[in-house]
TrEMBL record:
One of its GO terms (molecular function) is pyridoxal phosphate binding. Belongs to the class-I pyridoxal-phosphate-dependent aminotransferase family. Residues 85-437 form the Aminotransferase class I/classII large domain. Keywords: Aminotransferase, Pyridoxal phosphate, Transferase. This is Aminotransferase, classes I and II family. One of its GO terms (biological process) is amino acid metabolic process. CDD domains: AAT_like.
Length: 459
């Protein structure tokens, strides 16, 4: 065949099979369309009201005021600084800050930390370091949707979903479900489970794991020699629940870091790891600063050090994050006000669910979410047979009303019709979101005329 014979040319795919798979999954994600057409009261009234992405807008003004007066960048932040795993200054500031708030048994040192451009990158690093392609990572349902691509797209780990049926996933008895999932996966695939990913506080259920449950999970991980990863990105977004007082509501549980529990007799210290970042507790998703904490596994940190070249934190973000975390007075005040605002904002949305007779997972006291059963309300109001895919049907209605929520299918919900509402927004924005949600499910919105009166609490 001559090189000029184009008629005989075999057309090959322009991307790999794995890239094509991810491309298809990305195209199916409505979130990317939402980002290009966001609601703005002044400039884009018909844009998407986005209460589906976990961002905290309640303290942006406070944080921006601080950054404007502390953003004088030293020259060495225009260099590669101390390397891809974060500056010595940021590691020192983060370790001191987290020692105060997570209260680890063994005080954190800078050498225990690796800094990444967000916790998603940190999760990807750990999935890559702990698993070979096809090996498993246990993940309880429902779960944060982005954990799946974080652990599977490039690391090629296999997420092993853990179902709880009617068992409270925060109870000590939940360990039996993790064990069943591990044994079933290993028997079915012949591959090992290598880790358990714990979202603590939980996304999307907004609750903290009791100390006794974490202890039993540690024992379980020790028994099967698997890593326990405690994602504590919402550790300081814990607040008072003032509205969920009905009998049977799970009592609030104080946040206890996995690092604050002595490992002796429970789990090998080199199997315990934690994650934290600036995105949630400081409402700074755009800074892209995450932290891997591993106090007793230098082999892990050495393995990740090379790949941190791909998760380098920008010099500006490194400097700003260091400045924030070094200032104890500012961070203490910020956290206190943020927790109060989260409590009040949750109260507004939870009472709206009560007043409109919409089922939700009561008992939250952490993070930014309300887990709501819109499918049940939709069927009640529309008086139609149950669709083959109830979640998709409701999602289509929400999109048609120009409001975006995270759907339960993407979050591994065991039951159809559930969605996650992010409540960490100013009151007028939440009011607009709730109005559109109610319109999508055929529910008259009772707060339309006087949202300030409906809240029963002021932000």
């Amino acid at each position: 065949m001559s090189s000029g014979d184009s008629s005989a040319t075999v057309r090959l795919a322009t991307v790999s099979n794995r890239a094509a798979k991810v491309s298809k999954e990305t195209a199916a994600n409505k979130m990317w369309d939402v980002f290009t057409d966001l609601y703005d009261a002044a400039t884009n009234e018909n844009g998407f009201v986005n209460v589906g992405v976990a961002e905290n807008f309640l303290m942006h003004g406070t944080l921006l005021d601080y950054i404007r007066t502390h953003a004088d960048l030293p020259p060495h932040y225009l260099t590669y600084n101390d390397g891809g795993d974060g500056s010595r200054r940021l590691k020192t500031a983060a370790s001191r800050f987290l020692n105060r708030h997570l209260k680890p048994v063994v005080p954190l040192k800078p050498e225990h930390l690796m800094v990444t451009n967000g916790v998603s990158a940190a999760i990807e690093h750990l999935a890559w370091a702990f698993t070979d392609p096809g090996e498993g990572i246990l993940l309880g349902r429902p779960h944060y949707g982005a954990l799946l691509p974080d652990m599977t797209s490039r690391p090629e780990a296999e997420v092993v979903p853990v179902s709880f049926d009617d068992l409270d996933p925060f109870e000590v008895r939940c360990v039996t479900k993790y064990e069943r999932a591990l044994l079933d996966f290993e028997a079915r695939t012949g591959k090992r489970v290598r880790a358990l990913m714990l979202c603590h506080p939980h996304n999307p259920l907004g609750r903290c794991y009791p100390r006794e449950t974490i202890i039993e999970l540690m024992k379980f991980c020790q028994r099967y020699q698997i890593h326990l990863i405690s994602d504590e990105i919402y550790a300081l977004s814990v607040w008072e629940n003032t509205v969920d007082t009905a009998p049977g509501t799970p009592p609030p549980v104080k946040f206890v870091s996995a690092l604050s529990i002595p490992t002796q007799g429970l789990i090998d210290a080199n199997l315990l790891h934690a994650l934290w970042g600036m995105s949630k507790d400081f409402g700074a998703n755009g800074l892209r600063v995450g932290v891997i904490i591993s106090q007793s596994n230098p082999e892990l940190l050495a393995a990740i050090k090379g790949p941190t070249l791909y998760s380098y934190v920008s010099g500006l973000s490194d400097h700003i994050a260091s400045s924030i975390l070094e200032n104890e007075g500012f961070t203490d005040r910020y956290i206190t006000v943020n927790q109060r605002k989260l409590s009040e904002s949750y109260a507004f949305v939870a009472r709206a669910m009560q007043d409109h007779d919409i089922e939700y997972a009561a008992g939250c006291n952490a993070s930014f979410f309300v887990w709501v059963n819109l499918g049940k309300a939709y069927l009640r109001n529309k008086q139609i047979p149950i669709p083959a895919d109830l979640t998709r049907t409701v999602m289509d209605e929400l999109i048609s009303k120009r409001v975006f929520l995270a759907d339960g299918t993407a979050f591994g919900s065991e039951k159809p019709g559930w969605f996650r509402i992010v409540f960490s927004h100013p009151r007028p924005f939440l009011d607009k979101a709730l109005g559109r949600i109610m319109a999508a499910i055929g529910e008259p919105y009772k707060y339309a005329s006087k949202p300030e009166c409906s809240a029963r609490a002021k932000l």
